[in-house]
Amino acid sequence: MSGTKATQFEARVREAVLVTGTVQGVGFRPAVYRLANRRGLGGWVQNTASGARLELEGPPGSIEAFLRELPQALPGGAALLGLTRTQIAPRGEVGFAIEASERGPGAEPALQADLATCSACLAEARDPTDRRARYPFVACAECGPRYSIATGAPYDRAHTTLARFPLCAACRAEYRDPGDRRFHAQATGCAACGPRLIAEDPAGLEVEGDAALRRAVEVLAQGGRVALKGLGGYQLLADARCAAAVCALRALKRRPAKPLAVMVADLAAARAVANPSEAEATLLASPEAPIVLVRGRAGAVCAEVAPNSPYLGVLLPTTALHALLLDDFGGPLVVTSGNLSGAPIVIDDAEARAQLGPGVDLLLRHDRPIAHAVDDSVAQVVCGRTQLLRRARGYVPRPLRSDLALPPLLAAGGQQKVTLARSSSAGVRLSPHLGDLDGGAAWARYLATRDALLADGPAPRAVACDLHPDYRTARACVSGELPRIGVQHHEAHVLAAAGEHGLEPPFLGVAWDGAGWGHDGTVWGGEFLRVEARTVRRVAHLQRFRLAGGDAAARDPRRSALGLLHAAGLEPPRGWLEASFGEAERRVLLRMLAREVRSPWTSSVGRLFDGVAALLGLGARASFEGEVAMRLQFAAEATLEAAAPLPFTLEAPAGAALLRWDEALRELLSELARGSSPGALAARFHAGLIEGILRVAEREQLPVVLGGGCFQNRLLLEGAVARLGARGFEVHWPQAVPPNDGGLAFGQLLGAARTLGGE
Questions:
Q1: In 3D, which of 111, 25, 739, 706 has the Cα closest to residue 395?
Q2: How far apart are CA 590 and CA 574, in angstroms?
Q3: Mean pLDDT of 179-197
Q4: Per-residue model confidence (pLDDT) at position 454
Q5: Is the N or the C terminus of the chain less surrounded, counting Cβ atoms within 10 Å?
Q6: Distance (Å, rounded) from C-alpha 518 to C-alpha 511?
Q7: pTM of the model as a whole
Q8: CA gap 95, 117 in Å, rounded
Q9: Concatenated DSSP letters for 545-569?
């Protein structure tokens, strides 16, 4: 190894130090270099397949001071998981160096996530006198692509998709200069040596560089659609103020009503389209730069962007390419995943040309390949804290709970909002959001992600998966002699929420969602689970009702409404049946319920939301999961009057208690007939459910963990947290791990580890 020899090294020691955690792609080695020089230490630092390896030589007190100061000296994206020290013989080195990386076997390093372009780099791109003026791929040691370009470990330029772009003399000088912020910045480059920006029209005509940006602005200004190659995949762009452009984009995606995200140039522009709180503004401007759900401003963008929703998904530019485009365009842009319905996000240029090209007016691409697909993350601020609804760009592949000592396991995830997870010595690694597994391309992406996780670390001892007999994910992850450990869907939800906070049993888990296979073979979704050290017991659940047609009810809230009316023996609102169904359809569905044919039992709170929303006239069909339930939430939030809870009662027969909704529904229909507004009744419905949670909590007298997709509903979540907290309960809810099925794999790992620990 390199270094200058000391003429005498009495009273000097040398230590080999292995550092694990998020230490690659975050400016760790430059920070170590600067701190070692400040402390007068000799030695070196290098990336390895296991993390970062250091050798430090100098007076013992200086080495101790170095290690004590190291955590504070690191850039914001770094995270130390472990530090192993070994005494070795001094060599007399007084200089410190960054050595070439070593590629070899070992535990995988914790790679850094892709980070939004920092303000210093954006200032360069916007400065006409800077040598990187108008360069759309500017990056430094603390920002830019990481995971999306990584092809192997350790994280060095040679192990990224930038390996094909050798640095020019000017960039190489910056890379080697310890005083430069691009010192050992692997993603650095400039117009002379880095990736090129290319605009390609439907006829195949191309322009490059700034002309490509100008062409994209022209297309967008004329109401056209652009497919832009971002950090982790293609995105579809349109003018957020142009209804025709947004409708055309919706037609291309086959997404008639689901809200679309809007990208704006900066926080001032964000405040022009929405009303972010201080916490929401901080999250928007964070290096992770997720889409943040914020209260929108009426008329700031066209109504077609987020129909029937008071919230707007807002994000700031994630790259200099986005920033320059927004600067030149001068207004908000719809930015949504570059994929068609049922397909994963496109990362390949040829696929973009074939799949997206026919529906857009321009491809704005670059020649830096994407190694890992990673979609935009989605978050909201609830009770003053960030809650991730989709964990992807900016967060993946950071380890979760790196302090967890779990055996090596693989978790298969669910069937919607799918992620996989793996545990190893580097903690728990959750894959990027993969979406729903509806088509062949999505399934192929799932299998590729599974294989990448399996290849990156020690062989798993077992595979954790959902109990549902029809989930392809479980079958795909079990092969050969590898044992399969089934983890019940709702148990996984509450274990994930508890696990991210380090909460140990016993606790009461409240798992509310649309559907999950129960131990009794029925559809669960309104569960109260008492989690002990070795066991999980269902202590209460929502009163059951039947779903005519089973899974079809998820997109047809009318069926949930019929099931509720049938189970409670209630008549619908006057004229509701006739307005909601044709005569033949009505007759068939009622017969199915009466004969209990293709009408499975469910205890789902999600389907209860759907049915109540349909009976209140808030929606008969859902074009996406949860659409009508969201309308019920929004109607309740718009109500200013105090909400007296509807009477959800707790009945305690032998076995699990029942949270009954029939009296609540009876009163709701009665009040609706008397002229109460749907919004007021929606608010009372939420308040009644919150009281139901409190009743079960008072019965069990344990800390409470809230999990499952229903707790994406901020009115329900904030109300439950406040009500339980006011009565002295310790309350935990999903934050770093999504409450929906995107967090299922993490809970499956924890459930499988409990099973193995009990053997």
A1: 111
A2: 17
A3: 95
A4: 86
A5: C
A6: 12
A7: 0.91
A8: 33
A9: EE-TTGGGGGG-HHHHHHHHHHHHT
pLDDT of 9: 46
Reported as a single tens digit per residue, the pLDDT across 313-331 is: 999 999 999 999 999 999 9
Residue of 714, 695, 741, 705 whose CA lies nearest to 514: 741
Q: Which amino acid is at 679?
A: G
Other CB atoms within 10 Å distance of the CB of residue 5:
11
pLDDT, average across residues 671-687: 97
Residues in the chain: 759
437 or 163, greater pLDDT? 163
Instruction: Pick 714 or 654 by higher pLDDT.
Output: 714
The strand pair at 657-660 and 545-546 is best described as unpaired
Say if CB 93 and CB 84 are below 8 A apart.
no
pLDDT for 39 equals: 94
Residue 503's pLDDT band (cuts 50, 70, 90): very high
Chain-centre distance for alpha carbon 538? 29
- What is the DSSP secondary structure assignment for residue 159, as one 8-state letter? G
Strand partners, 274: 296
Cα 491 to Cα 173, 238, 391, 592: the distances in Å are 55, 41, 20, 31
**Amino acid in the structure at residue 226:** V
Q: What is the mean pLDDT of the chain?
A: 93
What CATH architecture is 197-366?
Answer: Alpha-Beta Complex (3.90)
Q: Where are the alpha helices (DSSP H) in 401-548?
A: 440-455, 472-476, 489-500
> What gap in Å lies between CA 649 and CA 660, rounded to an integer?
5
Q: What are phi and psi of 538, to 5 degrees?
A: -80, 105
How far is it, in rounded angstroms, from Cα 353 to Cα 374?
A: 19
Phi then psi for residue 321, to 5 deg, are -60, -50
Residues of the chain with CATH 3.30.70.100: 13-98
C-alpha torsion 252→435→285→77, nearest 10: -140
DSSP 680-744: HHHHHHHHHHHHHHHHHHHHH-S-EEEESGGGG-HHHHHHHHHHHHHTT--EE--SSS-SSGGGH
Query: Considering the domain 399-496+744-757, what is its CATH architecture?
Result: 2-Layer Sandwich (3.30)
- CATH class in words for 507-733: alpha beta
